[in-house]
Design goal:
Blueprint lengths: L8 H23 L4 H35 L4 H13 L4
Length: 91
């Protein structure tokens, strides 16, 4: 099986571990009867961390794997690839 490792993977793992910590805090907050506003704020932090991890993973994959597949292209043809990579930032 091929192993896929990119430079951003340690950053993604760090972000997901932070989200895991937040999620454990949220569970403890719910179990101890904390106010819903506080819980919602923590859930938002978890959601944001996971969304950013996903975005980084997808952009990194496109940057490396797409480049590897497409290879060198003339500038005119590169424009569509570069635009595609840029638009993924809005996922």
């Amino acid at each position: 099986m091929t192993e896929y490792r990119h430079d951003t993977h340690p950053e993604i793992v760090k972000r997901l571990k932070r989200a895991e910590g937040h999620l454990k805090s949220v569970i403890a907050m719910i179990e101890s009867g904390q106010p819903c506003l506080d819980i919602a704020q923590q859930l938002h932090a978890v959601e944001k961390a996971i969304t950013q991890a996903k975005r980084t993973l997808i952009q990194d994959h496109l940057d490396h794997c797409l480049e590897e597949t497409v290879g060198a292209l003339p500038r005119r043809q590169r424009q569509s690839i570069d635009e595609f990579k840029s638009i993924t930032k809005y996922l």
